[in-house]
Amino acid sequence: MSNPQQLRYSKEHEWLSVAEDGVSTVGITEFAANALGDVVYAQLPEVGDTVTAGESCGELESTKSVSDLYAPVTGEIVEANQDVVDDPSLVNSAPFEGGWLFKVRVSDEPDDLMSADEYTAFTAG
């Protein structure tokens, strides 16, 4: 399992792209997708919603369990990935590409986001 170096990671297993014009893309990591099992339902935040770092903003349901989706940053949702709503298995098959979850205009970013190497060490135990 390889975590893309250009992303940052939360302890709740979300990834975050570097903001472009203040907007970052958010998804869950391959580690989280594998732990969840086959994702069959995605409830994502809606455009215009405000999310707060560390707080639940949606949910992913798999064949194994239901898991809260946590916002890695604070900001306003500018886009939700309708492809994932229509085909939740994208979270498993392409967590860092087509399986992204939402885009957020970042207003605040916590200090505890990890680099790819730090996240790899974190998930190694």
- Our Rg estimate from Cα atoms comes to 13 Å
- Order of strands side by side in the largest beta sheet? 1-2-3-9-8-5
Secondary structure class reads alpha+beta
Can you write the helix and strand succession as a string? EEEHEEEEEHHEH
**Residue-averaged pLDDT, rounded?**
96
Number of DSSP helical runs: 4
Overall description:
The chain has 125 residues and is of the alpha+beta class. Helix content is 19%, strand content 35%. The chain has a six-stranded antiparallel beta sheet. A three-stranded antiparallel beta sheet has the order 4-6-7. Strand 2 and strand 3 form a beta hairpin. It is globular and about 35 Å long. The mean pLDDT is 96.
Q: What labels describe this entry?
A:
three-stranded antiparallel beta sheet, alpha+beta, 125 residues, six-stranded antiparallel beta sheet
Brief summary:
This protein is α+β, with helices and mostly antiparallel strands and 125 residues long. The chain is built from 4 helices and 9 strands; from the N terminus they run βββαβββββααβα. The model has no long low-confidence stretch (mean pLDDT 96).
Blueprint of the fold:
Elements: E1 8-9, E2 14-16, E3 23-28, H1 30-36, E4 39-43, E5 50-51, E6 56-62, E7 66-70, E8 74-80, H2 82-86, H3 90-93, E9 102-108, H4 116-123
